[in-house]
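Need tokens for this chain, all 380 residues.
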Amino acid sequence: MTASAPFIRPFDSSQSHPVLQIGGDWTLAHYEHLEEQVNQLREHLDDTVQMDLQPLAALDTAGAALLLELLGSQRLREIAQQAQNLSAERRALLLAVANATASESLPPLHTTPSALREVLGHVGVEMEEIWGQTKALLGFIGLTLSSLFITLPRPRRWRITALVANLEQCGLNAVPIVALLTFLVGAVVAFLGATILADFGASIYTVNLVAFSFLREFGVLLTAILMAGRTASAFTAQIGSMKANEEIDAIRTLGLNPIELLVLPRLLAMLIALPMLTFVAMLSGMLGGGLVCAFALDIPPVMYLSILQDSVELRHFLVGMLKAPLFAFLIALIGCQEGFKVSGSAQSVGEHTTSAVVQSIFIVILLDALAALFFMEMGW
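Here are the structure tokens for all 380 residues:
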């Protein structure tokens, strides 16, 4: 059988019922040529045009797919059922193609989604993800607290060695970086305070500025941010590596509780270390401010300490120290939770480590802002 060139004869719009003739070989060999004609004609085709498939010479699945794009599934099904000149095989092929896509609608051509719709959709996805993470964190907090309450009355189940090792890593090893950073920040705050207050002849109040800022905010906040970047990431990487190597599955196989074995020592170590580091940060920050006051403002150390004793109340120190255990609790739990979320690859370990740092810093700053507003309203 000789091949016949496919064609689509344009309909005559002068007739009351225009007819569009489809003929030739609608096969894969002529797909590219037919696709151009279908794309040009599809936009100008309406429901009043009748189809004549009698000149159709050959038809395969590729040709039937092009007819589907031209006519749509509903109209192709109607034509296949009503066309008496089609063979049973061709009618069955057209019906099969039409029925296969009956439940799916072809996407509109060159559709540009609204920018507002994309933004709102992205916001919705992010809010749903945040809500899911919040629920997961609350569930992990409940699981950890239940394990803690079960373990505390049973001294034989305490992991003293793991607690001491984590305490050294979280607390002792972090003292130099915490002390250095807060010392420098204290010096910067004193320089800024001296520069501004000197214009009003109130340079002496630089001492109060440094003391209030470090006792209430900077001491605990800078320490918590450092621990979030240093220790929460370490917790996630350690537990995530164990998850990737299937060591946590082995722990469960041995009949041990991963929460009790991995989370509780890290949590308790953080609860002990962060308040101590906060105290070190307060002292270092005020020491940096005192050096600036001594060399730039001619305020001797004796006067500096005297002003601290007379002007700074104990409640400012207590406000800063009260926030330290809460920050420590959340930082440790977020770091451990993200470690348990690791799926098993090195990329997953890196992604969840980053997520742990971001979440910890965000929650620390958010809670610190809320606490500052609360204490201000209460007059504490």
